[in-house]
Amino acid sequence: MHALIQPNPGMFGVTHHYDLLLIGAGHAHLGVLRRWALVERPPGRIALISPGPVAWYSGMLPGLLAGRHSAADCQVELQALCRAAKVELIISPVEGLSAAQQQVQLGDGRTLGASWLSLNVGAQISAPPQQGEAMQLLAVKPFDQFISGWQQWQAKPEPMAILGGGAAGVELALALAGKVPQLALFSAGHLLDGLSPGVRLRALGHLRQHAVEVREDCPISRIDNDSLLSGNAPVWRGQRLLLASGAKAFAWPVHSGLGCDERGFVLIAPTLQSYTHPTIFAVGDCASLPGARKSGVYAVRQGPVLATNLSAALRGLPLKRYRPQRQSLALLATGDGGALLDWHGYSAGGQCYGRWKDFLDKGFIQRHRF
Ligand SMILES: Cc1cc2nc3c(=O)[nH]c(=O)nc-3n(C[C@H](O)[C@H](O)[C@H](O)COP(=O)(O)OP(=O)(O)OC[C@H]3O[C@@H](n4cnc5c(N)ncnc54)[C@H](O)[C@@H]3O)c2cc1C
Fold this sequence. Notes:
Blueprint: E1 15-23, H1 27-38, E2 46-50, E3 54-56, H2 61-65, E4 75-77, H3 78-85, E5 88-91, E6 94-98, E7 103-106, E8 111-119, E9 124-125, E10 130-131, E11 136-139, H4 143-155, E12 160-163, H5 167-176, E13 183-186, H6 197-209, E14 212-215, E15 222-224, E16 227-230, E17 233-237, E18 240-243, E19 247-248, H7 251-254, E20 266-267, E21 280-282, E22 287-288, H8 296-315, E23 330-333, E24 339-343, E25 346-350, H9 351-367
Parallel strand pairs: 1-2, 1-8, 2-5, 8-21, 10-15, 11-18, 12-13, 12-18, 13-14, 20-22
Antiparallel strand pairs: 3-4, 6-7, 7-8, 9-19, 15-16, 16-17, 23-24, 24-25
Helix pairs in contact: 1-3, 1-8
Bound molecules: flavin-adenine dinucleotide.
The site of flavin-adenine dinucleotide has 32 residues, from helix 1, strand 2, helix 2, helix 5 and helix 8.
């Protein structure tokens, strides 16, 4: 567990007070707002804080890159959703949090205080240490920066490597394979670790068909000018590296005084409350709870429990417990309109699964449009 670093009490200035601040338009908060738009919202002054006016839906990003969706197809407009839920929308990133004082510092200089806080800010992408500037790095998150960076790269295609052998790395490789002259995919362990062996073999088949060079069990330890090194051995040379590797916690929650795990993710109880500060909830990738994986599916499932618990907290009622599901359905886009399915150790692939994935993804966006 991280040592609790207490923020400087003088760090934050004038405060506007809210009953509840929802920080980040992640999957669970979208679900909370939808529920409050459709059913009764709890009493009090409530706001959502987001760096931008839209929330991107990561599940459709590979389809956007493959040219199968437009950017608008993959976004939820927050103003309309907030208006329907009777929640204020504040556009600015949170840059600091004092758990003890229940205050947040915004990028625009404002300081807000709240009786209750809820964090659903996701995570950033980790990068290996880099020496020299010969290699350009592009992280898949935040999505708007990634999309504009990719558009610049696409204007002048060059050989590229992708770091990350999880579902995101595989989907991106299959979406981008035909768009760059050479593509290599690096996985620290086996490709799609945690999914069934069958889906890994199917993915390897698709990647081979698209001439993607796959390097499994090849953790990248550092970048030295135009070389990727595994241990001390150079394993790839080039000038473009797309980062789709593991989730890395943002620094500001770690420095907030909230109890975090050894990787910096907020430790939460089954009620989704911080263990150290029960007036602060945390969900999705930024939270740490045994059994809950860092994936959109888990963040979505936390939404209904979070909505119930935030309403109960504001009314002084008892809270419900969230229990992570043991299995989750994975549908991986293959870049050609098809998808690979992984469910309970069973794997399959084809165009019909791609249509199913499109149906589920478009349904998610539609559910949050008001
Ligand atoms: C290419 C790709 C494809 C993926 N496909 C799938 C998939 O098909 N299925 C699946 O289950 N998972 C998928 N994932 C994983 C998934 O994206 C994450 O696990 C999921 O988005 C986590 O959800 P979340 O609600 O925790 O946060 P996010 O969905 O990441 O949302 C966090 C929100 O917080 C906001 N935010 C960030 N910092 C701040 C700040 N300082 N202040 C205020 N707001 C802030 C962000 O703008 C964002 O809106 C994919 C990931 C990638 C990269």
